[in-house]
Amino acid sequence: MPIAEQIAVQLRGLIRTGRLRSGDRLPPVRVLAGFLRVNRNTVAKVYVALEQAGVLSTTPGRGTFVTASAVSGSAGVLLPLVDRLLQQARDEGIPAGDVAALVSRRAGGARRHPRVGFVECNSSDLAYFSRQVADRLRIVLTPVLLGDLQATLDDLDIIATTMFHVEDVRKMAPHHEVVGLMALPEFATLDAVAGIAPDARVALVCATEEGVRSKAQSIRAVGLKCPRLATATLRQPDRMETVLKSSDVVVASPKVLERIGEHIPSGARVIAFASVLGDEALQLLDERIRSWTAP
Known about the structure:
By secondary structure, the protein is an alpha/beta fold.
């Protein structure tokens, strides 16, 4: 499946599940492409295709927005039924992930069982995302560091990764099905990060050094020119306190913000920045697993 099509499917999923609503503004092409670390032309192609399909509309000078028709089509008829199903599941104490897996199995018939691997470049993100995928799709998953992928190719049929690494993984595994999942914060958060003033003193705090490297790369990838970015981890309390004390903007995940709240200056702007795999990304992977056939 071409990368542009994978992105388009997941954007449609964001609309279908209500994470994107009519009138919501999408990030500019350069911001979304920068964050996902894919070619700008790929995202531009997606926006044009979805605009031609009536899902998006672009107003010069204002941006690209979800159209009303995108959320009021035939799928909208099913939303009340889905809401009732989820409410009944909640009443019975059944997790939403179990409901999604059940619907998926009923829709796709007998499930095939390809060997699925999940690839990330660092151990903390690998553990975080692999656990999400395995738990919510209820599958056996092999976590693989990007540097170890070449040695494990013979043991995998489908390789999932975040969109950050999909190009690299495709080059390393040209004969495998590679699924790129959009791990995104809210689009408003991307806009907030991209809009940080160039002269602002920005503090980036993460739990680990690996997290710092990954988030710093994402911050710069959205086009932010921020020479005054200072970083620290929770394992560096003295440095963290120094970095926070002189900051105008603090960027951290919601969980980290809970830990450092008392150290953030009262006048500092706080941006909760966390990348999560939404249902639309997991649904794409689930569909690719179900449609897989042994060569």
